[in-house]
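Re: How this chain folds, sequence and tokenised backbone to follow

Filed under: protein folding, tokenised backbone structure, sequence and structure records.

Contents: The amino acid chain and a row of whole-number tokens, matched residue for residue.

Body of memo: The sequence and its backbone structure tokens, given next.
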Amino acid sequence: MSIPYALAVYFMMWWIVLFAILPFGVRTQEEEGQVVPGTVESAPARFRMLRTVGWTTAVTTLLFLGFLWLRQSGITLDDIPLPGPR
């Protein structure tokens, strides 16, 4: 696998994982009881971007290492027993 290909796969995985992780641990202004005038009640009360980026990077790195291991192992879709037509 070439380096540009690996970076492209990691980049795509990172963005997908980011959107999967975004809702975890976020409390709305309504839940906190402190709605800032001019904002919606469902807006995050305290959005911690660095924490989200850190978790996203950690999870993506683990998934990417699994992806690399799977590519290096030589396992293909033909090796997975999938149900076929009857």
